[in-house]
Amino acid sequence: xxxxxxxxxTYKLSKSLHGHSKDVxxxxxxxxxxxxxxxxxxxxxxxxxxxxxxxxxLHGHTHFVGTVVSLxxxxxxxxxxxxxxxxxxxxxxxxxxxxxxxxxxxxxxxxxxxxxxxxxxxxxxxxSSxxxxxxxxxxxxxxxxxxxxxxxxxxxxxxxxxxxxxxxIKVWENGECLTTLSGHEASIWSVIGLQNGNIVSASADxxxxxxxxxxxxxxSVIKTLKKHKDCVRGLAVIPDLGFASCSNDGTVFIxxxxxxxxxxxxxxxxxxxxxINIPNFGFASVGEDRTLRIWRDxxxxxxxxxxxxxxxxxxxxxxxxxxxxxxxVGYVWTRNEKRFATQEEVQQYQDNLAAQTIMSDNVGDxxxxxxxDVNEALIADGTKDGELxxxxxxxxxxxxxxxxxxxxxxxxxxxxxxxxxxxxxxxGVLNGREYDYIFxxxxxxxxxxxxxxxxxxxxxxxxxxxxxxxxxxxxxLDQVAQFIIKNSGQDTMTFEATPNQGDPLTGSSRxxxxxxxxxxxxxxYSSPSDSFTVPSRYIPxxxxxxxxxxxxxxxxxxxxxxxxxxxxxxxxRDFNIxxxxxxxxxxxxxxEQANSESLLVKALEFNDQLSSNANTKSISLDEDEQEISLxxxxxxxxxxxxxxxxxxxxxxxxxxxxxxxxxxxxxxxxILDVIRVMVLHPGASxxxxxxxxxxxxxxxxxxLVILFKIVQESTVMNNQMLALKIFSNMxxxxxxxxxxxxxxxxxxxxxxxxxxxxxxxxxxxxxSYSTALSTFLLNISVYSQYNQINTEIxxxxxxxxxxxxxxxxxxxLIMRCICGLGTILMTYKDYRPSGSISTSVKNSxxxxxxxxxxxxxxxxxTKLL
Length: 865
Prior knowledge:
The protein is α+β, with helices and mostly antiparallel strands. The chain has four domains: 12-353, 7 Propeller (Methylamine Dehydrogenase, Chain H); 356-420, no CATH class; 424-487, Roll (Ubiquitin-like (UB roll)), CATH 3.10.20; 596-864, Leucine-rich Repeat Variant, CATH 1.25.10.10. 27% of the residues lie in helices and 24% in strands. The strands form ten sheets. It has a five-stranded mixed beta sheet with strand order 2-3-4-5-9, with no helix packed on it. β23 and β24 form a beta hairpin. α11 (703-713) packs across α12 (717-730).
């Protein structure tokens, strides 16, 4: 492709790409010239410059899209064009068929912009259409990382490289993880493939590592570079030389392919997030200081200020640069005068810049009485592009920047005295509301969030609202609350850590085993992971049939066991069918809430009964041994969910738990309900795991042995229900999830026993029990997408699900089963239920009236049967 810049060395605005509702975190340019943006709004957009920047919107992630990369075709996917990664830990691989070009445009040449002399003139303003056409589904999803996928790259031979907050790097070929590289001590922020076959990685541990290729899939570290003084955020390949890096320390370094530092570029005033090579010209970098900086011969030759921090940038084959900004907009910058934005569009952009607020600590100390008046200070031209001046305009301090290309000063915002703001207590306005304090919060994912706080508020309540609004994990609650407390000068004060509307373990006065705060029986499960509100991820067809084997080192099972199953049913199932928002399911459903006060009352009542009977006194809690106090302490710890990361349980408290597990069948449900919540505690999960491993042959301190005995033998409905809910909650943390599934999938008789007991109890069952069983089965289907399940287990699973569907009548409960069964059938494409099961399920669901929002998922299951 010919780069068209008319020998112009100055970049100017060409286009603003509006459409995302949150930060544009990542950008790339495809080989055909189309632009791709990934956003914190969970979506990806593909923009076509040859068609007035019309866009197609892609949905494959359930969380932030943090990275996108252009891909060459592969043997498996001949039309492979794009990969994306996000905070949902998933990598989506997309083919061109997911975002086809408008056939009416009939312009498929790669020089789509070269002859487009007025690509902006068809639009009266510089804002591309906010409404994008809906695209297709990803062709492949790569599962294996245990935390957010923060970066993607490509090796010189076309393999996908991924880096994650889990501190690992993975190399993928045709849906299979070839190798996992470990060595960094913190999150991976960038990965690239060099021309010589080596891989380079950058990390929050402030280092860069060069990995030498020693045969296909084999890499070893040959050099660790430690020149940067802070997190290394970005890398870029420099053909025929080596690579560039950028860092939170504000610098850009240029390296040879062997890791020799040859140049240091300084000019950014804050974090530098990304850097690219501009062929035959120089480099470009972007960062938190809101600028795109162009570098040539070691000098910062141009500075282009944005309305907000700039997360990423990419170079187009036509010579343009695309930036992704925290204001939710992508910007296209060009050196080709035929693609310059109109003067009206430029003025609109500059007006947006001028409306921004800049804290004084970003421009240096200011004293209003020493500032020059705007009418005098800006008479003289600037000495270089990007030069900054703070001037006085009446009672307002303004920041102006010299634009060499425009030959004028451009206002980039009004300056607010940061020191005064921190001294004065009513000084911040955020989203139209005035706060005592406005803080910048970095929770470790590289995003700088703003949070408003009034001194009359509970920091934990503010923190809870903040993490919900920004789709952050619950584990950040205490971190954010403590940050607010410390920075608002309230270190000596005590706050109740009750951020939710009700404490997770506090409910109504009447105790119902396994109940939640919400007394609506139609919603007896945890809302944060409600199966019917959380979007699902799709594990599409892969010809090598091992797209589920990339987690927990299960690649040794690449020959899907289910390929040999039900071959007589392997006839003409259409696997071009599209997933729905509910099938397949991607998120484990948990039972997180309980009623601790009433539970305590009931437990003490039962304990009194046991202690008053000579035959059972030995298993009651001994007040002299402080066992009752130890039990109360367990409940108190479980109430403090914001302290889960630092709280723990004593050995004596675990002894109390196992003592109570020996209570009679009509009373043991109280401690089962406690364990249901307790396995959600990360520390308790690890301790229970250790106890299982140490007591494999004994039931005394082996929680799994006790629970499996209940689900296989007990006909006490409360105990069955709670044991199944505990199993569902065990899916949250890896230690117990692994032990549970190992035991469950090694013995098909377990599921058979659960099915048999359900048949006995179902005539008199309540919805809580049926919901517990269907949720447990649903979580198995979610797990099956990450790990291989053998044919016999799949058979037993399908039999259980079909039995529940044919037995129950509640639409919501049946819908849960439809989602689980549909997920299994979509994941294991070569498996098909027997004719009798398919007929039974179809007949059962045809008799149920579902909400309209479930229709597409019901129809999908019918197609899969």
